[in-house]
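Lecture 7 notes: from sequence to structure.
We start with the chain below.
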Amino acid sequence: MKNLLQNIEKIITPFLDSKGVELVELKAIGSGGRSQTLKVVVWRQGGIDLEGLSNLSRNIGDLLEAEDIIHGSFTLEVSSPGLDRILLTGEDFRRAEGEKVKIIFGDGSSTVGTVVSSAEGKVVIENETGREDIPLKDIVKGKIEIVF
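Predicted structure tokens for the same chain:
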């Protein structure tokens, strides 16, 4: 399964790059027997609307059909990470730059601020007390704060 996902990633990544879209997650669910679901989670600065996701899904499906690397039938699900996604990696926080987030630490404490940047193993946030550099290793998880 790992080789299949690596091959799929090699096929779809150049297409996604050409559309200004980043692959966030690629996952196969099912054993490839009767039914297999391929989940493709993508992100683009500024977001992706339903029409954009539909177009990506159609094009990715065409690419995979042409390559014929998935044996048997499969269902393709293309989605964006969504606002309620959990932030775990430096890349997750990079994609959340400009967003207000709540960061939870290993000791149960937390902080809230706007993500300024994420690089070199740290996340920089800004809140009412100023800028704070937070090592990624200290973060259990983060979550975008949805403000109405």
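Points to note: The domain at 2-79 is CATH 3.30.300.70 (GMP Synthetase; Chain A, domain 3). The chain has a mean pLDDT of 92.
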